[in-house]
Amino acid sequence: MSPPRGFFVTGTGTDVGKSVVAAVIARAAAERGERVRVFKPAVSGLDDGGESDHALLRRAAGSPQSDEEIAPYRYGPPVSPHLGAEMEDEEIDPQRLLATAAAAREGSSFFVCEGVGGILVPLAPGYLIRNLAADLALPLVIVAPPGLGTINHTLLTIEAAWTAELDIHAVVLNRWPKRPTTVQRSNRETIAELGGVEVLTLPKIDLEDMDGWPDLGLL
Ligand SMILES: Nc1ncnc2c1ncn2[C@@H]1O[C@H](COP(=O)(O)OP(=O)(O)OP(=O)(O)O)[C@@H](O)[C@H]1O
Ligand SMILES: [Mg+2]
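Above are the sequence and the adenosine-5'-triphosphate SMILES. Below is the predicted complex in structure-token form.
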């Protein structure tokens, strides 16, 4: 079987490292000469400053896409996308998401999509991140923290993916330490066994030093 031509990066929740993992994947693909394009359905928390998710993905991919072409819905407050939309008196339109994603994907040889929060986060009435992942038909990469509590959250995410018959490519335990504890090593083994998935790890990286980023071996 040929390797996937892209991934949908989701996670067990917000702030777990989806953007970082998606960026590392995009960078590895670009390094191999792929024409990488990126997509994120909605970004919020832009008022908080710092490098936005769409800017990090663009930089990692070496993509010329505009903010609008990467993330069609962008909100200032750090809130769930459906609430961000409500505060702007609008609703996220799944058709617009799919059209923007299709345009980004067209002409790319590798496509990296980052979700928002976790897999059951609502984008619009009756339309969750899980529905978007299904519509895009990309294999999932699930990002999770390595410590206590992660078995439950990761298996819940895997079960939610199974419900929608999504293909899970791998779990990535992020911020994996040089010397993992007994709990962390056990978490890795237990998720692999009970979830029936490959469990990879990503250490803490220097986000500015793209040349020093590791290759997760997903391509
Ligand atoms: N492996 C890592 N090395 C260094 N910094 C990291 C790593 N993983 C995450 N971080 C930092 O932790 C924070 C959260 O990571 P990130 O933004 O990737 O999470 P996220 O799941 O994409 O969050 P959101 O739900 O807001 O999209 C960021 O400041 C990011 O730079
Ligand atoms: Mg992110």
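Residues 69 and 202 are 28 Å apart (CA to CA).
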